[in-house]
Structures are given as structure tokens and as C-alpha cells.
Amino acid sequence: MIKRQVTQQGAMTTLNGSQLKIPEIVKAAFLAGTDPEHFGYWGKLESYDQKICESADLALALWISKKWVWNTFTDNERKQVADWFLQVNSLATVDNNWHLFPLTVQLVLKSLTGILRVDIKLKKGSFPAAEPTLNSHNKASKPLSMAEIG
Fold it and tell me: I want to staple 116 with a disulfide (CB 3.0 to 4.6 A). Which of 13, 73, 108, 110 is the partner?
């Protein structure tokens, strides 16, 4: 039988008896992944990018580990991580459940920072839609302006 021990600080005893400090690993991953100068940078997000989906999972992981990771970041590190996530606000997504991914990121950031930063354009009679929207013939159409929404 394999016995695992996890301490209050999030360290796990491995099979060879050494300590695996999970919060330090997660913290290092977030700092590397959100630093454009680091070889482990997750990259710039683009519209319709798969990383939009992944950003929601990363945001949830950060929220779950808030006590051990987010709360130990310096102000500059928090800004770096938040800035990477904020890219998602202005990107176009596929018009389906992908709208949930930026929303998840935004709600996690609000929970972590206390600030809600949302950049959503509404199309009359629909859920928030990112540019470009698709018409019934799957052709890109221009989003309605606030004047057109009325």
C-alpha cells in the first residue's frame, strides 16, 4: 500500500521520502507561463485560440490555490499574472459554450482582485457575443453598435 502525506503547507511526501512542495511548483508555473521573457511563456492569446479554453482552467487552478499561491505573489507578480488573463476580455470566441471561458476568467479575477474588468459587446436579442458574430449562413457579420441596439 502506498501511503501519501500532505502537510498543511501543501507539501507531499514522495515515495523516496523527499518533499514535493506543490504550491511552489504551481507558483513557479504561473510566473513562468505569464512572463513573455521566459521560455515557458504560455503565449499571447488570439481570437478563437484554444488557449482561451485553457485560460479558464488555469484561472480556476489559481482560484483554488489562492491561499498557497495567489496570496504569496508580490504586487508585481499579481499584475503580471492578471495581465496575462486580461487578454481574454477583448477576444472573439466561437459562438457556443466558449463564452463561458472568458466569463470564468473574469469572475476568478474579480474574486482574486476585487475588480471586475469586462469588455463585452452585446448583440440585440442574444447572449454576450464576441466579434465577429455569425449570421444564419455562417458568414461573419458586423456586430451591432449601441445606437443600432437602441
Answer: 110
> Which of 104, 150, 95 minimizes the C-alpha distance to 127?
95
Largest CA distance in the chain: 67
Rounded CA gap, 51 and 18, in Å? 34
pLDDT digits (tens, 9 = 90+) for 97-134: 999 999 999 999 999 998 877 655 444 444 444 444 44
Domain extents for the chain? 27-119
- The answer to whether 149 and 125 have CB atoms below 8 angstroms apart is no
Sequence-distant contacts of 9-13: CB under 8 A, at least 24 apart: 9/68, 10/68
